Amino acid sequence: MSERVLIFDTTLRDGEQSPGCSMNLQEKLQIARQLERLNVDIIEAGFPIASDGDFEAVQATAAEVRQPTIAALARAHRPDIVRAWEAVKNASKPRIHTFIATSDIHLEFKLRKSRSEVLELSIEAVKIARDLCPDVEFSAEDATRSDIDYLAEVFEAAIENGATTINIPDTVGYSVPQEYGPFVKELISKISNRDKAIFSCHCHDDLGLAVANSLSGVESGCRQVECTVNGIGERAGNASLEEIVMTLRTRKDLLPYHTEIVSEEIHRSSRLVSNLTGAFVQANKAIVGKNAFAHEAGIHQDGMLKNALTYEIMTPQSVGIISSTLVMGKHSGRHALLKKYEELGYQLTKEELERAYFFFTKLADQKKEVYDEDLIAIVQDGIKTIPDTYKIAYVHAEGGNQELSSAVVRLARQEETFVSSAHGDGPVDATCKAIDQITGMPGRLLDYSINSVTRGKDALGEVFVHVSFSGQNYTAKAASVDIIDASARAYLNAVNRALYENKQKVGRESEVVSEEQKKIKHKATGS
Ligand code: KIV
Ligand code: ZN
């Protein structure tokens, strides 16, 4: 029997920490629920001392997601640890994850502390955590650039004082597998009480080696791997969950370890994370990239038709990509749509089906064939976590290389309608400006990207925007066959998100109908 490796998912902490990947509470909960379906062993749900939002997200995850262990991160300080405990204490299996740096460079320039002071702080932190929680993980930040004997001393003391998991991060992604594996092996051998803890690897991908390093860590004795969906995370990211899991599964012959991950949930998890964070997955990304299972070359296709094993080392079905039997078109009814979603792994409520059906019929009128990816985009776009304060009622934009671009936008807000028009540098800019005039909230478009969901000229376009309103940044997305419609709706989703989050903060809608807006409304209604 192969040995079990625990999967510690840090998408909601290290992943969310990366620029542009921040999520609100509802989105974090959606990801946590999906991670539970994926059957990860531990979810690191956040860093509760970092902000009230982080605290609430960890607390809500702990209350709702009952199968996995829920971990909360804390620096090696009492206030951090107490706050982390407050956030996770109601989890069915809570964990406090406390950390401090151990490399000389971090000690000298960041912490300005001696090795013995850091040793004392580590012991103190583990004791505080262990008094509160039976499951305590201790991490030595920048472990791989630390003196190995000193690191062994710190880890031994941490275990002595109650740490149950010991994490060995390659924080700056500097290691190579030939070095990380032997380092872990030697380190563990120097820790006399090693049998009382599980060792864990946490590798960053600055040199593209996070997965390879993690696997060499497993071979050297780590039985927990810290990773993220799609490999998102600080700088170049963390080790990618799907690559670790599928490597262990596909190369059992060489790597006699297994995880309890439901690999058929990988594809859906990947899409959900990229949809909610706006962090695209490159087409050629292993396991979850759009092209990961596409065989384009004639010679490959020929081989595949004769026997899939000629070019396929794992099946698309094993990661949850379904080649479905039901073809959807404009004559398909609600029942077929419901069945199709079931095939794709979605259980829709009556309301969700109604909404999905509405968009599906609109799409089926516009496109010849509606692909699985279109349906997934519809349903994931439809997971509304933010109320629509404003809705698009009408949008029309014109551009070209000779004319100044212009747009006319009509927005609905409850019973009222507002119309505005604007010129801009291109139709998207003009559309956003027209929206700004109505909402009275000028946004700065920091990032804009568009991606086609499927192939062909009639494919759905998925637009992601990153917008700043008064210095606060928001990510949002929308999909439509028309890219101006998708752009307007993505931008408006960012507006609605800003309004909603402000309202949550101050307990009321912070923006009021401005004089400018009243004039616009006046024009629209003609009154
Ligand atoms: O990369 C790192 O060192 C970390 C620790 C907090 C575990 O993320
Ligand atoms: Zn990290």
Description:
The structure is a single chain. The chain is α/β, with parallel strands linked by helices and 527 residues long. The protein is built from 18 helices and 16 strands. The strands form four sheets. An eight-stranded parallel beta barrel has the order 2-3-4-5-6-7-8-9, surrounded by eight helices. It has a three-stranded antiparallel sheet with strand order 11-12-13. It has a three-stranded antiparallel sheet with strand order 14-15-16, sandwiched between helices. Helix 2 runs antiparallel to helix 11. It is globular. 45% of the residues are buried. 3-methyl-2-oxobutanoic acid is lined by residues 14, 99, 139, 141, 167, 169, 171, 202, 204.
Defining key terms:
single chain; 527 residues; alpha/beta; Double Stranded RNA Binding Domain; three-stranded antiparallel beta sheet; globular; binds 3-methyl-2-oxobutanoic acid
Write a concise synopsis of the structure shown:
The protein has 527 residues and is an alpha/beta fold.
